[in-house]
Amino acid sequence: MNSLRNWINTNRELLRIVSQVLLFMTTLVTTTLAGAEWSYGRSVFMEDFGWNDFFSGLPFSLSFISILTVHEFGHYFMARYHRVRSSLPYYIPLPPFPLSIGTMGAIIRLRQRVYSNIQNFDIGIAGPLAGFVLALGILFYGFTNLPEPEYIFQIHPEYREYGLNYAEHVYGSREDVIDIVVGDNLLFLFFKHFVADPERMPNPHELMHYPFLFAGFLALVFTSLNLLPIGQLDGGHVLYGLVGYKRHKQIASVVFLLLLFYSGLGLLKPSDPIEDLMINIPLYLGFLFFAMRGLRMSKRDTLMYASTILALQFSGSWIFPSVVGYSGWMLFAFVIGRFLGIDHPPCLIEEPLGRNRQIIGWLALVIFLLSFTPSPL
């Protein structure tokens, strides 16, 4: 037993690299399986699923993993530049369950504390900028190389009988169709209207069948989440470098509350049955209370703010019943508020950012606005 422990201690770095390689290979497999299902509707759980089906998922997986890899190595190389010890990326695979994208992303671990706000800024901003550049390239390729509109009949041969006006006959009228609409962000709207051939633009209900577009879209979603100016997310590091500790805390708190408000907007409505509201209102209020603990207020103040948000959401649903948020952000907001934190710890070494870093920092926040999709799926 002691000899095994000694061998593990001696080869700890080798074992770490082997585990990272295995995680990468597993993530490549799971994202390829996800790509086959999203692009061509070919699930690994189908009896006739074969190698050709598996390889059909590679355009999605290679595009998506490439963007994640460039993002993480942006962090890694910038950390090395500042002589901050860092691990190589750890990829996080997801099993190929229905609607899985095959991964939860990738992370690197800084193996020592970062003392300077400039180091924090540089390491934080390098990843999103690098990944965003590659995502732009993949999206440009995807939008400038769209197949003929009849391509969709390869995935949905049952649509052929309706012709290219299939959307009028399929969505909202057939119960056997899983209707998933990919949302828009400002960057996607630009590509749609100014880059793509309008006659080849895919229907929003079918965009997931275009692997380069879907991979680029998901990359933008991940980029925007990373660039949220909250806590120690990449955007939090950027905001801290730009405005300092006090203003970061104020802005991050407001952004977090807006995210909570939007994610739960329309979740509870006055038109809901009273017996449902009697159960759901206390449960949702408890969710808001625990999510907002990251604001580090007293329990009384936290409950007051949570009740205010609930009241505004509920009254908003009464005045504007058609306006709804995106409940998919609720889990992300809860993780930030309960585990990741909303404020940014002060750095031991504080230095003003130079003009070039300030320009790049504000550019990163613009990228966040261009990439953020209010309702991704």
Descriptive terms for the model:
globular
TL;DR?
By secondary structure, the protein is an all-alpha fold. 60% of the residues lie in helices and 2% in strands.
How would you describe what is shown here?
The protein is mainly α and 377 residues long. It has two domains: 192 residues, no CATH class; 106 residues, no CATH class. It has 14 helices and two strands. 35% of the residues are buried. The mean pLDDT is 88.
Sheet having the most strands: 2 strands, antiparallel
Structural class of the secondary structure composition?
Answer: mainly alpha
The fraction of residues assigned to DSSP E strands is under 5%
Number of strands: 2
- Through-space gap between termini: 51 Å
Helix content: 55-70%
Radius of gyration: 23 Å
The pLDDT mean sits at 88
Flag low-confidence runs: none
Q: How many structural domains?
A: 2
| Widest β-sheet, arrangement of strands | 1-2
The tally of helices reads 14
Would you list the SSEs in sequence order as H and E? Answer: HHHHEEHHHHHHHHHH
Overall, the morphology is globular
Please render the helix and strand layout as text:
Elements: H1 2-10, H2 12-40, H3 51-55, H4 58-81, E1 90-93, E2 103-107, H5 117-144, H6 152-155, H7 166-170, H8 186-194, H9 211-226, H10 234-264, H11 274-291, H12 299-319, H13 329-340, H14 355-371
Antiparallel strand pairs: 1-2
Helix pairs in contact: 2-4, 4-5, 4-9, 5-9, 5-10, 5-14, 9-14, 10-12, 10-13, 10-14, 11-12, 11-13
